[in-house]
Specification:
Order of helices and strands: HHEEEEHEEEEH
Structural class: alpha+beta
Radius of gyration: 16 Å
Distance between the termini: 52 Å
Helix content: 25-40%
Number of strands: 8
Number of helices: 4
Strand order of the largest sheet: 1-2-3-4-8-7-6-5
Strand content: 25-35%
Number of domains: 1
Length: 157
């Protein structure tokens, strides 16, 4: 029992230190996450800031961000050494609520591809999130309406 309490507390502190991102500038993200370890322009997305990905490593997470209007509008938390615990997912979502709230999530039951797939919506409708477990991949992606608009408008969709 004490072991599970310790795991839960550690998960909370790891997620708390990997917190936030939506609405922050690149400089704020660097201050929070440290040095950029990878920067890459997607060949499949528009050649603008929404298509540029910045990656950081912090507290067992790889954190990838993309910007719109100079602010983080897309963020992906990846954990390579195992699943992201429910308490971590909840903390990461709450830290990216931007004054709104997230629903409880709905598990997608088609497991042909995913070991686990949960969709979350934010009550203000300005962002949504998905958690995926596929093989050894474990990731929580949070995407704003602004990022979707910037990428679809730039690609002519």
């Amino acid at each position: 029992m004490n072991r599970w309490l310790l795991i839960g507390l550690l998960s909370f502190f790891v997620a708390e230190s990997s917190q936030a991102g939506l609405g922050e500038t690149l400089e704020q993200a660097k201050g929070r996450y440290g040095s950029i370890v990878k920067q890459e322009q997607s060949e499949h997305l528009p050649q603008n800031e929404a298509g540029m990905m910045y990656e950081f490593n912090k507290d067992g997470f790889r954190i990838q961000i993309r910007l719109v209007g100079g602010k983080v509008a897309w963020i992906l938390y990846i954990k390579d050494d195992g699943p992201i615990f429910e308490s971590e997912i909840r903390t990461l979502l709450e830290n990216n609520a931007e004054g709104s709230t997230w629903d409880n999530g709905a598990e997608v039951t088609d497991h042909r591809i995913y070991k686990k797939h949960i969709k979350f919506g934010r009550t203000d409708g300005l962002a949504d999130a998905e958690y995926h477990e596929i093989g050894t991949y474990h990731g929580l992606g949070i995407i704003t309406k602004a990022w979707r608009h910037a990428t679809s408008a730039a690609s002519g969709l």
